[in-house]
Each structure stands twice: as structure tokens, then as C-alpha cells.
């Protein structure tokens, strides 16, 4: 499942949820929900 992989990736690279949220330009709580699988990551296609 994708949400588990993003959490593992973050931990493997010694990043905090706050740091990843900043890179994604979202709030930490939103990122936390992505990582937990509570919220799906929105993907835009143009």
C-alpha cells in the first residue's frame, strides 16, 4: 500500500512529518493523514 511506503521512505531518510509536509506545501496534519491512509493523495493530471 502506497501510504505505508511514504512513511517508510520518510523514516529511511531521517525526515520528520513536518519537513515532508513543508516540501509538499501542506499542513503536517494533512501529511499525517496521507501516511496513515486516512486521506488519499490527490494527483493532478493535465
TrEMBL record:
Domain of life of the organism encoding this protein: Bacteria
Annotated GO MF terms: DNA binding
Protein name: HTH cro/C1-type domain-containing protein
Organism the protein comes from: Robinsoniella peoriensis
Lineage of source species: Bacteria, Bacillati, Bacillota, Clostridia, Lachnospirales
Amino acid at each position: 500500500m502506497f501510504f505505508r511506503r511514504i512513511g517508510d521512505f520518510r523514516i529511511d531518510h531521517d525526515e520528520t512529518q513536518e519537513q515532508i509536509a513543508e516540501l509538499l506545501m501542506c499542513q503536517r496534519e494533512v501529511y499525517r493523514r496521507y501516511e496513515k491512509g486516512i486521506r488519499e493523495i490527490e494527483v493532478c493530471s493535465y
